[in-house]
């Protein structure tokens, strides 16, 4: 199948890595569904992509809600006919120490970072199985490979994403010819750190940003495109992508 015949759904497409990925896929000729909660951001990106000659649609979606994910997939299919690529990218990272007991933030991370991936996968998988093809990208992190102080809950959610990706790949690759790629970025310039409510960790992240050149969302989009363009026989199972200066 030509890449230009493919249809993609990108979650968390209203900013950062997700927006960059949507732009990149649309520029390659895919039709792209943009899923996130901020409809104004999605509409602005649809306009940008359309003006550049691409095809995109805004799908206001809350990934913590399975019905919302199913509605997004159904609307995408009604408009573009199929779903070949799912980029499970939506995520949150409000850092804090565990003894600060910011339990609401823990729960939001579990809901978006883990349940969000499961919900969107559950919504898209039946159609990919029917099509006997598909490619699911799950956005884990360097934090899914090693644990950092202040990121205990975030690391736990990203370790879950990495584990789920591997298990999913083992099941749906051989049985349904669906590829699964787990992306594990290091520090990327985005709005992710804006949600940190702990002043000390916010300052630490600001200092980290001054200490090295972060990746751009476009760099991660490029790695997604690399895995997507690989021949069907080849599943790039994991991509660990770091800023050159990140130790
Ligand atoms: P951003 O904050 O820029 O993007 C996060 C996206 O998630 C937004 O589009 C937001 O959209 C969306 N989102 C949050 N909650 C929901 C929800 N309930 N339903 C739907 N969408 C939601 O950060 P990044 O681009 O950096 O983050 C993207 C992914 O990359 C995350 O999974 C993050 O953990 C991961 N990552 C980021 C790294 C970094 O250094 N930046 C490093 C490693 C991994 P909206 O608010 O409109 O719903």
From TrEMBL:
Native source organism of the sequence: Acetobacter cibinongensis
Molecular function, one GO term: oxidoreductase activity, acting on the CH-OH group of donors, NAD or NADP as acceptor
Entry keyword set: Oxidoreductase
Family that this chain belongs to: Belongs to the short-chain dehydrogenases/reductases (SDR) family.
The protein's name: Oxidoreductase
Pfam families, sorted: adh_short
Residues in Ketoreductase domain copies: 6-191
InterPro entries per the UniProt record, alphabetical: KR_dom (IPR057326), NAD(P)-bd_dom_sf (IPR036291), Sc_DH/Rdtase_CS (IPR020904), SDR_fam (IPR002347)
